[in-house]
Amino acid sequence: MTLVINQLCRSFHEGGRVHRVLDHADARVESGEAVAVVGRSGSGKSTLLNLISGIDRADSGTVEFDGRNVTALGEPARTLFRRARIGFVYQFFNLIPTLDVEENVRLALELNGIRGSAARDRSAAILREVGLGDRLQSAVDKLSGGEQQRVAIARALVHEPALLLADEPTGNLDEETALQVFPVLTSLTRARGATLLIVTHDTGLARSVDRVLEMRDGRLRQPGPGEGTASSSVDLRGIDGLRSRG
Fold it and tell me: Whole-prediction pTM value?
């Protein structure tokens, strides 16, 4: 399912001044492609994900996914579209502490009208895929950070979304754990044929996706010949060590 971002603009008012975060940003992510967005803190990467998902509204421009103009939808329609077609993975997991592991995953199905044994079976199956088949009834606050993120990945993918948005998914993990968790995210997404857009400051992980875009001056850019690597990615050597949360 192709994602098309066209002339996207978003500004915020800060201290009596207008801060333009996105300035006619354009990008195209092909169906099943895994693309990383890198850039400095505050450059608008998280804002971009919020606009794509319809959590936030653009000042102008459009976001189209699977031929549908998401920006033209009203709020109830955006909510239903996001719930059914998009999965999210966050830096801080966003699990519900009063629910156990399986219940956290099953919630994504129940919100889409799938309940009972069908929901429980699907939740258990994907938890086995992420290596947590023996932790279904565990309290999420008893899990390690890496295990919590695996639960979050399972929850994001259990309803078979066409688009997965990941905002710094390894940012709250140590390097060793990140190297274990990130392949789980990418492999499960690819196995389902979903499109993946990931915001990350981890340049090592960014190198493992299909393509990298850089957010700079409110726009998304893919450097031309001589600027990137042989795979047409951004040359990441100059931005190693950045810690982006913007």
Answer: 0.87
